[in-house]
Amino acid sequence: xxxxxxxxxxxxxxxxxxxxxxxxxxxxxxxxxxxxxxxxxxxxxxxxxxxxxxxxxxxxxxxxxxxxxxx
Length: 71
What we know:
Elements: E1 2-10, H1 13-19, E2 21-22, H2 26-38, E3 42-53, E4 57-69
Parallel strand pairs: 2-4
Antiparallel strand pairs: 1-4, 3-4
């Protein structure tokens, strides 16, 4: 039996405000994925999304679907 988790990963609001838009930092995203992998989670799929913030700014986000075997 599998267990699933859906997570939205996005950069902070401050980087969007100062830079006009925020891209996901690949180093932070890798650390995020590795932290979940240590807990037994495996990425099944990801979807990139541009999310509007405070009417004028955009920030990049990823919807990450993970799975792991239930104990």
